Amino acid sequence: MSVLPSCLLEPLWAQFAALLPEHVHTHPLGCHNPRISDRVVFDHVIAALVHGSGYERIAGPSCSDRTIRRRVKYWAQLGIAEQVHALALRAYDRMVGLELDDLSVDGRITKAPCSGEAAGSSPVDRGKQALKRSVATEATGVVLGIVSAGANRHDSPLLAPTLKAADDQVGGLPDRATVNLDRGYDSDKTRRMLGESGFIGETARKGVPAPIQAGKRWVVERTHAWMNGFGKLRRCTEKRNRVVDFYLYLAAAIVTLRMLIRRATPRYRWDGRPTTKRLK
């Protein structure tokens, strides 16, 4: 049984498969074992993303853990997840519409027990190895850009790379867009950077109670909660930064596709349209 409903998994695989290069057999004698199909490996990767299980646990007679590792590393080098996420954003913008005038950015710390290139000492968990992801969303919470870093990195220096990642994914952010931030970004350096980049900063002030200045940034906190629904993101055991980003953008593509289906259902009709509002 698939870990995702078919209305999510099939469109995701269709775009993912379209971006994969054609495999060329390079064995000089042509007598090696048949290559495991990309679809079989993709299903195992989705299972690893959703459940957070190690490759040894989800591997089986049809697909070994080494095959999954090699294929994930290869797909990460190609940047397939980032391209799929960009296509999902393009489809969402065409069918529903991205609200890019109001952006929200925030960071979230998650566990990284195996350390790795993107891990660092957690300031909130006794110095254990952890990962920080900085996420930029539009006004309704659709993920636009993601940056991964060690948990010991402050949110403020990650703001510019996160906005740059969002700009690359959507093909250009509008001028004078409002960026909603929490009090962790309340500094002259942040305000200077936003002004030089052409953004308007709406930053919560230090010393003022949060409920009074909640603003519009709550959507990015909700998006972080959605992304924490993926076991691989809650407890990331990957060591290579490129593979970490692969799983982050693959999860972002699924979240974007889920939001697209939910908001397109009252407006459009299509074959295989889900009959329930809840898409796990």
Shape: globular
Provide the structure class.
Answer: alpha/beta
Tell me, what is the CATH class of the domain at 99-240? Alpha Beta
**Helix coverage percent of residues?**
40-55%
In whole angstroms, the N-to-C terminal distance is 13 Å
Low-confidence stretches: none
Q: Could you report the average pLDDT, rounded to the nearest whole number?
A: 89
Tally of helical segments: 10
| Total beta strand runs | 6
Radius of gyration, CA atoms, in whole angstroms = 20 Å
CATH structural architecture of the domain at 99-240:
2-Layer Sandwich
Throw out a few tags for this protein.
single chain, 280 residues, alpha/beta
Textual characterization of the structure:
The protein has a domain at 99-240: Nucleotidyltransferase, domain 5. It contains ten helices and six strands. The chain has helices at 6-19, 38-51, 55-58, 65-78, 80-95, 159-170, 188-197, 218-227, 231-234, 241-264, and strands at 102-111, 120-121, 129-137, 143-150, 178-181, 200-203. Strand 5 (178-181), helix 7 and strand 6 (200-203) form a beta-alpha-beta unit. It starts with 5 loop residues before the first helix and ends in a 16-residue tail after the last helix. The relative contact order is 0.16.
